[in-house]
Amino acid sequence: MRAYEFDRDLRLVMFGAIAEIEIFFRGRLSYLASGEDGIFGFPESVKPRLSREYSAANKGEQFIKHFVAKYGDEHDLPPYWMMVEFATMGTIELFYQKVSPSVRAEVASELGIKVPVLKNWLSVLRVVRNACCHHSRVWNRTWGVRPVIPKDWKGFGLSNGKTFAVLSVLYYLLDAIGAAPWKKKFDGLLGEYGDIDLDKLGFPEN
Length: 206
Prior knowledge:
- By secondary structure, the protein is mainly alpha-helical.
- Helices cover 62% and strands 0% of the residues.
- The protein has helices at residues 2-37, 47-56, 62-71, 80-86, 89-98, 101-110, 115-133, 163-176, 182-192.
- The protein is globular, with a radius of gyration of 19 Å.
- The model has no long low-confidence stretch (mean pLDDT 91).
């Protein structure tokens, strides 16, 4: 029962971390991409998917109603900053792969990592986010999509398939975007469940 409760609370803490990172990423991606390609300058290869998601979006949302009423006869899709409000995480991940190399590099640079690493981490975040949303186990789990560990993380030397590696990525990204208070929540969780075996998460002894 304690393991079940810990898994539940860990899942909530991880989802909160991903939400912070996701909001930052959606905002920066839309800002930089629209600045370079225009507010409706979506990559052609992504437009069919965007059209499907826009069609499925809640048309009762005030910002969508406003767009349709004022601009719906001129544009099939809303501008970047509206699209990222309801695009799925999978679509946001695809966006990043299809925008210009300069935009990809700028976003990655702001986070202090390389583009291939960020591409991988977005896949990891999507998978972990879905696991958290669907109440899947995160404790004592080996992840199918594993985070790439940057070369300058010297001494990491641990399995990147366990939840410790995912937590390390979350911790790094939160620190990079200035959302450091999450560490207190996580430390508090570990303190509350001091009887839980952290080896199952892939934690090192120290």
